Amino acid sequence: MSANDSLFDQTDDNTEALRQIDRRLLSIIHQRDQVVQTLVTEGRLPAVGQENLLLDRTVQDFASEIAPAVDEASLKSFSSILRHVSSHSRRQVHVGAVAFLGPKYSYSHLAAIKHFGDSADFAPVASIPAVFDAVHRGDALSGLVPIENSTDGRIVDTLGMFVRRHMQICGEVLLPIHHNLLASGTRDQIHEIHSKPQALSQCRNWLAANFPAATLIEVSSTTAAAESASMSPHIGAVASLAAGQAYGLSVINSDIEDRKDNVTRFAVLGKDECEPTGEDKTSLLFQVEHQPGALAQAMTVFSDAELNLTWIESFPSPDSRNEYLFFVEFSGHRADPNVQTAIGNLGTMTRRLEVLGSYPVAKL
Ligand SMILES: O=C(O)C(=O)C[C@]1(C(=O)O)C=C[C@@H](O)C=C1
């Protein structure tokens, strides 16, 4: 008799109690799927970002009303379970695919799992522009792209696409990034280290100190690097542990990022409108006339409306040399009266103005 047979033959009270509980869990999830279906039919299914906040609130209520002794780690785990259940329900009603820079197990994929849950309909694509294209064409309902990293700054490909093509932001995700050096051979066999330029840059000092002779090769994503490492013992990859597992690689070194508090912020692309939650952010893109004082004057609309800026970046205009577009993010929702005033005033001072979106502020 195999170990599995003996498990299935067990009929003691506790094993049976567990099976009953699991059956109840499944039937409750099935019931939940039906409620989600009704919400879709009525056009009232909340945006993913908004539902995530409701799920977190449910966990908080559960902790205070039913299980006050539950610790922080368990609460995080409950929140993550509810996100996965929610992504399962959404998948049943075909809410649409989520495009991200693949292959699977890239950091973009891990950020997409954090936001959409692991049962979402994921659609990995080959580049950041391809994520924008998939959402623009309607092949994917949502997309997820890295926008800035705490060590390395802005992600140029992403900002360049916002400049070239109108796209809405309906959420953000913060993901701590811990890089690993992965290989199919031994440490001594590694001559080349592959990764996405941003990942190589986030480990610049570590790589220079530990592999001064290795050639650094830039590739389209960290998972693409892991794939190459699986094909040659001379290639090391800077990538996620999940990518290493997927491609059967050994971890030569873990946590090789130069800053231990390395975090990447991702933007969720899509047409979901998020209602104000009380802790929101608004993203804008604008271009002022090319004349003295134009930018300084434009910026006064934010201080006049008492809006706290959380991010500002300039990006060269694709049409005219020496001219720039500006990305600005501030606390507040586009439905707030002071935000409306600021946007209205900015509109009178700018050549181009796009409100990219208002969405709940992400938590780490
Ligand atoms: O290559 C990946 O795994 C990605 O998801 C892209 C990306 C990026 O371009 O910033 C995302 C997070 C990390 O900062 C490193 C790489």
Automatic annotation (TrEMBL):
Pathway: Amino-acid biosynthesis; L-phenylalanine biosynthesis; phenylpyruvate from prephenate: step 1/1
Chain ranges of the Prephenate dehydratase domain: 97-271
Pfam families: ACT (PF01842), PDT (PF00800)
Catalytic activity as recorded in UniProt: prephenate + H(+) = 3-phenylpyruvate + CO2 + H2O
Entry's EC annotation: 4.2.1.51
Gene Ontology molecular-function annotations: prephenate dehydratase activity
ACT domain location: 283-360
Keyword Amino-acid biosynthesis: yes
Keywords: Amino-acid biosynthesis, Aromatic amino acid biosynthesis, Lyase, Phenylalanine biosynthesis
Protein name stated in the entry: prephenate dehydratase
Organism of derivation: Roseiconus lacunae
High-level lineage: Bacteria, Pseudomonadati, Planctomycetota, Planctomycetia, Pirellulales
